[in-house]
Amino acid sequence: MRLGHIFSAAALVGAMSFGVCAHAGCKLQFEQHYICDSGVFAKKLADAKLIHVQAGRTDLFGADRTGQLVTKLGKQVAAADQPADMTFEILPVDRGGMMDFGPHAIPEGRLNVYDADHQLVWVETLDGDGDAPWTADVIELLKRFQAHVAGSKDL
User: Fold this and answer.
1) Which entry of 31, 42, 61, 62 is 20 to 30 Å from 109 by CA?
2) pTM
């Protein structure tokens, strides 16, 4: 079982026994895992019309898949020079030269969601064993986010 999945699902359904910030934003729980206020996030997502999509400079696959997700959520992808209500940023986790030993899950990727004021309002973290290519991580990360938000795994 992957920890990012547990935290995000618990946060979305309101079963947040880990401690939640009382204002917009997210609180770092531990290494790349955040607890976010699901009520604030749900309201901001419902109100959003235009969403920026950001990925690494060479991550065309991640940007494209994240843009498809935004469209499936009934939102419009904002042009780079256009003001947006939210930003979806998908990035691999930078391990910073850290080496992991043993059969345990490590953070591999994150989908960060920011509101119009650039406040972090949601974080979806994907943990894994480090063996999957980034394209597979992108697909899994976005499926999990969509399942938590929309209740569907169909991407």
Assistant:
1) 42
2) 0.75
